[in-house]
């Protein structure tokens, strides 16, 4: 019981810490660095560590927290995050199986791209049935491109940094597992 | 074994998401959402205030000369403003008198609701801000957001019971019907998404637009009164091969530093 409680608390503080980091990056960093999606980057890194079940539960909690402070209709962020992670798992299992830093960067960019595709699709559906507050312009795409590039770069830097300590991220250990 | 665990998690999370979306549209999550929001609002507010403070600290002068020049310009502007204010008051009185004589009745009466900015929306690709008032105070989608009682900064795009989200004019999805205060009263649409500046598109090519002309809301949109200031014309692009001319505007407000803003709501 005590162990469960400690695990619950440590998980809660980890998630809250990442969420607060996301808030600060969004509010404080200058344009275009405020586009870095910290939550997405961390979920992607958890997937790389092969913690799929945990990542899905984390995505549920992050999605729910994000829904409280975004302009899109309730459910759009949550559902697109969930489906994007499932697609990313499939992508990492069958296609981008290498764990070198450039493949990881490419996978992060691809995953972000998939997330935005789901997001735009779901937004269109929700806006069609519920309310219209979303307009696509060429500049929306430019913003998404910034987000994709900067988040992928952030993942790359964090991956390189973490791979020094975490065996699962270091390609040197792959043969020994 | 591991595969079956992943499958279990996938179905469990998917099922919970479906229930959450369904319950939300039934309104059963309102209390939980409000309570959860209260946990994170202080962090968003702190980061927002910190961001405004940093931007304030960046505003400095390189030398004494520059400081005095800026001071002189500010003094002259203030003098001019006082003159204009006096003229405006006289015109206002005259206007009221004329309206009274004509037995004119205003159709819509607006009032400004003061709100505090909590911080930026957490969707990093949008330029939107969260404010601390919502549907409970009568705010609805489409209400204009202003500062200093007359400078338009955006519009409300989402309302909840206790908070609302305002899309700033600089956001790439923002569009507002406007008019230039020139001889022809040129109409157009102000759009964001160009960094710090905003653009006015669809101005007829044969109309004369000058640098320094003021741009205000045209009043052609529902819930947006006429005459809310947006900015000044800084440059004009009038190409022979295009059907309309464009004006690049210098906004009258800095869209990155708000602590309090007003929402124009229809008085009941």
Describe it for me?
The complex is a heterodimer of chains A (177) and B (268). Chain A is mainly alpha-helical and 177 residues long. Chain A is 72% helix and 0% strand. In chain A, α4 packs antiparallel against α5. Chain B contains three helices and twelve strands; from the N terminus they run αααββββββββββββ. Chains A and B meet through α1, α3, α4 and α6 of A and α1, α2 and β7 of B.
Helix count, DSSP H or I runs of 4 or more residues of chain A: 6
Taken from the alpha-carbon principal axes, the silhouette of chain B is globular
| Succession of helices and strands of chain B | HHHEEEEEEEEEEEE
Mean pLDDT of chain B: 84
* Cα distance spanning the termini of chain A: 32 Å
Largest sheet of chain A: none
Helical content band of chain B: 25-40%
Q: Give a quick account of the main beta sheet of chain B: strands, pairing sense, barrel closure.
A: 6 strands, antiparallel, barrel
| Class by SSE composition of chain B | alpha+beta
Tally of DSSP β-strands of chain B:
12
Topology summary:
The complex is a heterodimer of chains A (177) and B (268).
Chain A: H1 2-28, H2 38-48, H3 52-67, H4 76-94, H5 101-129, H6 138-163
Helix pairs in contact in A: 2-3, 2-4, 2-6, 3-4, 4-5, 5-6
Chain B: H1 2-26, H2 30-57, H3 64-102, E1 110-120, E2 128-131, E3 144-147, E4 151-159, E5 164-168, E6 175-180, E7 187-194, E8 197-204, E9 214-217, E10 229-237, E11 244-251, E12 260-266
Antiparallel strand pairs in B: 1-2, 1-12, 2-5, 3-4, 3-12, 4-5, 6-7, 6-9, 7-8, 8-11, 9-10, 10-11
């Amino acid at each position: 019981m005590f162990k469960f409680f400690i695990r619950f608390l440590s998980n809660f503080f980890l998630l809250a810490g990442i969420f607060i980091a996301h808030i600060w990056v969004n509010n404080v960093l200058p344009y275009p660095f405020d586009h870095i999606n910290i939550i997405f980057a961390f979920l992607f890194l958890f997937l790389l560590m092969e913690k799929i079940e945990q990542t899905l539960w984390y995505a549920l909690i992050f999605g729910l927290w994000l829904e409280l402070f975004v302009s899109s209709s309730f459910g759009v962020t949550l559902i697109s995050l969930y489906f994007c992670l499932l697609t990313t798992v499939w992508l990492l299992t069958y296609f981008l199986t290498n764990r070198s830093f450039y493949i990881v960067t490419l996978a992060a960019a691809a995953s972000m791209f998939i997330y935005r595709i789901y997001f735009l699709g779901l937004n269109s559906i929700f806006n069609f049935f519920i309310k219209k507050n979303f307009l696509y312009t060429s500049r929306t795409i430019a913003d998404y491109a910034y987000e994709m590039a900067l988040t992928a770069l952030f993942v790359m830097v964090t991956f390189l940094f973490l791979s020094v300590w975490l065996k699962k991220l270091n390609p040197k250990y792959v043969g020994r597992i | 074994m591991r595969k079956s665990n992943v499958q279990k998690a996938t179905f469990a999370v998917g099922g919970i998401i479906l229930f959450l979306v369904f319950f939300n549209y039934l309104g059963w999550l309102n209390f939980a959402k409000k309570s959860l929001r209260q946990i994170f609002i202080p962090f968003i507010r702190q980061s927002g205030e910190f961001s405004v403070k940093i931007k304030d600290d960046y505003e400095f002068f390189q030398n004494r000369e520059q400081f005095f020049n800026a001071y002189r310009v500010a003094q002259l502007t203030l003098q001019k403003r006082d003159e204009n204010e006096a003229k405006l008051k006289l015109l206002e009185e005259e206007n009221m008198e004329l309206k009274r004589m004509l037995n004119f009745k205003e159709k819509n009466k607006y009032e400004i609701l003061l709100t505090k900015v909590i911080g930026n929306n957490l969707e990093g690709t949008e330029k939107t801000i969260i404010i601390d008032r919502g549907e409970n105070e009568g705010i609805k989608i489409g209400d204009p957001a202003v500062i200093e009682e007359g400078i338009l900064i955006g519009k409300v795009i989402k309302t909840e019971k206790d908070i609302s989200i305002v899309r700033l004019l600089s956001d790439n999805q923002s569009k507002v019907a406007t008019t230039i205060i020139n001889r022809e009263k040129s109409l157009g649409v102000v759009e964001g998404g160009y960094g710090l500046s905003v653009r006015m598109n669809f101005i007829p090519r044969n109309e004369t637009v000058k640098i320094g002309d003021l741009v205000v809301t045209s009043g052609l949109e529902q819930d947006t009164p006429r005459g809310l200031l947006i900015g000044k014309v800084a440059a004009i692009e009038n190409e022979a091969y295009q059907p309309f001319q464009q004006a690049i505007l210098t906004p009258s407000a800095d869209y990155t530093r708000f602590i309090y803003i007003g929402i124009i709501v229809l008085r009941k």
